[in-house]
Amino acid sequence: MPRKRALDAGKLIKMIEDEIPQAEIMKKMGFKTSMQLKTAYMNALIAEGRVPAIKGGRGAGKADKTKEVTVGKRGSIILPKELVASLGIGAKDRFLVRKTKAGISLKKI
């Protein structure tokens, strides 16, 4: 796999802000496709702190804190009151439960 070449983020941003044509920027910076240029520009903006990084991937939607739940004597899953309130779950709500690779899934019906 070829090594990632060093890119002068400030220089790339300056060229784009100075409205230099895309073809010229690609030639000077050594990009073969416009997608490479656009990706490098976005990464440069993130590196300079002008644009916040995009959170993505499997861990993006994880909750801030985990809550411990217990199983009662009769097999009922007991959720903490704060969790129930934050999820907007009511006393008469019904759920579908299924086994997944990660554990279990609850879907409100």
List keywords for this structure.
2 domains; 13% strand; two-stranded antiparallel ribbon; 4 strands; 109 residues; single chain; alpha+beta
Indicate how many domains the architecture comprises: 2
Beta-strand segment tally:
4
The major β-sheet equals: 2 strands, antiparallel
The DSSP helix count reads: 4
Rg, nearest Å:
25 Å
- Calculate the mean pLDDT score and round it: 86
Uncertain regions spanning at least 5 consecutive residues: none
Range of helix content:
25-40%
Distance between the termini: 49 Å
Order of helices and strands: HHHEEHEE
Q: Kindly report the spatial arrangement of strands forming the biggest sheet.
A: 1-2
Proportion of residues in extended strands: 5-15%
Shape: rod-shaped
Secondary-structure class? alpha+beta
What would your notes on this structure say?
With 109 residues, the chain is α+β, with helices and mostly antiparallel strands. The chain has two domains: 9-47, no CATH class; 70-108, no CATH class. It is built from four helices and four strands; from the N terminus they run H-H-H-E-E-H-E-E. It has helices at residues 9-17, 22-29, 34-47, 81-87, and strands spanning 70-71, 77-78, 95-99, 104-108. The chain has a two-stranded antiparallel ribbon. A hairpin with a 4-residue loop joins strand 3 and strand 4. It is rod-shaped. The mean pLDDT is 86.
Short description:
By secondary structure, this protein is an alpha+beta fold.
Helix-strand blueprint:
Blueprint: H1 9-17, H2 22-29, H3 34-47, E1 70-71, E2 77-78, H4 81-87, E3 95-99, E4 104-108
Antiparallel strand pairs: 1-2, 3-4
